[in-house]
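Hey,

The postdoc asked me to send both predictions to you directly instead of through the lab channel. I've kept everything plain text so nothing gets mangled by the mail client. Protein one:
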Amino acid sequence: MNPKRRQMISQGLQSMGSLGVLYLLLTESELVQANSGAKLLGVRIWPSEDYTRITLESDKALPISHQLLTGPDRLVVDIDGLELNPTLKDLVAKVKPNDPYVAQIRVGQFQPTVVRLVFDLKEAVKPQLFTLEPIAEYQYRLIFDLYPTNPPDPLMQLVKESARKEKLLAEEQAKNPKGSAAEDDPIAAFAKKDTAPSKKGGSSTTQQSPLSPPSATTANTQRIPFKRLITVALDPGHGGEDPGAIGARGSHEKNIVLSIAKRLKSKIDQEDSMRPFLTRDGDYFVPLHRRVFKARQVEADLFISIHADAFIQPHAKGASVFALSQQGATSSAARWMANKENASDLIGGINIKTKDKQVAHLLLDMSTTAQINDSLRVGNSVLRNIGNFAPLHKNRVEQAGFAVLKAPDIPSILIETAFISNPQEEKRLNDETYQERIADAILAGIKDYFAKNPPMARRS
């Protein structure tokens, strides 16, 4: 006990008696407890091309200081009120060789109550360090987001990946400089003759009326000859710190929807007139406004957010499709769903202080009636095709204030592929055949929509 505290107790004996001494001793105990080290509950690393996130979860908020060093590039972080322990040492082993930005992490006891972390970097970064308050299943989280100083350009990457398709499309235009049939009559151009080998090895020709919408089968076997490639942004919900809904068998929504999105991407890759873009291609968190921003960066013609429903009652079932609403939700269930999905930022963890004000404004009030009307059209097309083989929760597109659907110039829908909270549907969501059929139905709906609503000239 320090001399000052001993003097206080001595004075307490003289002036307050034994009760005063007891009070002072309790105060001393509380001070010791308050100054004791925080308990580290877990460490996690989420690498991606966008950024690498490091998370330290603890039972108390952790004060930190940091500095960037060059020659070589390093980030040095000092954490106060923490002692080196096996959990923290695990952080070293969690660094993956393919992490774009972190080469290795070194940890040590810098001072008796200060732990130092040194991040050896592969390139210069712009770090964001912040603390998240307890929410959902998490306690306090200390977040290190390491962003590259020169972030990759998603549009340029997409152009490189689709260079072959662009070349073929240019060659087609050179052969037909007066314009493709799709611009004169997109439905007639889409509903061309489809020739496929018969079971006997010959060929059979089926003719579809140009006045009738193409079937799901036709949509999957015919291409749409437009003057430019259609860009479809696929948005697997949740990711990283945000698992999304969790089924009774432990399935995480974030993993299922990423699998479905990758299957759909593969199918779109096979379409001569389309190219896909994933807002996330791995297990990492992307804030809602960044998903919208990334879709606009690649000048997407369509935005599709993919999810797996959850509800408080395990018997709820069926797929749903949602569009944005400017005038309130079309049902209490739609409102509940929008509120749940919009909470993704809170669980996944965003740095409020650095949120792009322009993008935040975009998400608040820049959606348009035209965008919503187009979203309803593509939503109905997708819902109809899903309904060809799967149960539907509602047989119409519902609307609510989903933040991720608020791109002012991109038709946007959110698909709840099934209820992960329903044990039977959770099993179905994990089935590869079901995932393939969902992806096929979404693609058929996309093609149905663009057959009737060909994309306009590229925005400048």
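Protein two:
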Amino acid sequence: MRIAFTVHGSRGDVQPAVAIGAELARRGHEVRVAVPEDLVELTAASGLPTQVLTPSTAELLASPLVKERLKSKNPRVRLKALGEVADHGRATSERVMGELADVSDLLVTGPLAQDRADAIAQSRGIGFVPLHYCPLRPNASLDVRYREYPRPVSQAMWRLADQTYWLTLRGADRRLRTELGLPPAKGPLGGRLRSAGVPEIQAYDAALFPGLENDWGPQRPFVGFLLPDKDTRAALSNGDDATSPAVEWADADEAPVYVGFGSMKITADQIGGIVTTLLDRGLRVIGHTDHQLSQHDRLLHLDQPVDHETLLPRCRGAVHHGGAGTTAAATRAGIPSVITWLSADQPMWAAALRRNGAGSGNKLARFGPSDLDPLTDPAVAAAATRLGERLTPPADAVASACETLLDAASH
């Protein structure tokens, strides 16, 4: 089979697709990948043929559009900003998607630009399957954010969010579909894919979201968190890796707390305050950041990439931004997480851990010392261990995702 992955976003969006693509390539299938410009070199290190899909995501994340307007208290400003984020690199993305669709049997995307990929796949008469890294479709089981709402209110909020997102895309989608000779789409993509029998792979574990699997049924299969195998992860690090010295330091004494925020832009004062609070409680800390941190004999400062799969099992807990990949790694390690979220799906992961008793969270702007208490609570540690034991092994998750894609490509 010829399978193309066109993945927008950050490393956390790209890496799960690389996990599947590498396994499909090992099975003898023809795999091509297109990613944002700043992630091409990283992705190509996996050995998969890789090309530019859009301009740099890192530049977008650092722009006033994302840092200010997308977080505005004015709903109209946020809505317009959301549309502009969706339009990031649209012209290049549409061209590359079309070129890859011309030589593929199946087009696969991450959470972003799914409407675009669906239209292009339809126009070429090939299959399309999206990967979801968190719950995205309306449901009757979950609250939209960290706060708990009455169930009817939560359901209404999901429907409103789905419809609002569709409204931000509808104009561009109609224009693209007209260019491709397709009729206008009616309503949000999830409902259309459901009607067409298209699977939507849930690339995270059902154990974190009780009830959702029954809510959606087999057309939205929960395969588990997707993680590249050890050799592929080593290739992605390209030798620029601080894992070994960090492991040696972690193993040398009492297990530390890991503090890191991935690609999220936080200030030196914010991460410094969290690190200092943990040190004041007598804990050892690994601070993973580009910012300078005060020297301390119980602090290891890292500014190079690390393999969370190797390091986090040596830790007693983790403080992080709540990205799906970091949440998965901490949960697999069986350690508590305290999530200091900024936006997007991050509050949802904090709520999932709270429901399972395996952690908690708070918005970074409201974060205080008491939010770190779960890291030293034996009951939370025990719950985190139990939750980690229930997760689908990564190799099984990748294999399940491959089977779903190959089945879709053959129809």
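Summary for protein two, as requested: The chain has a mean pLDDT of 91.

Thanks,
C.
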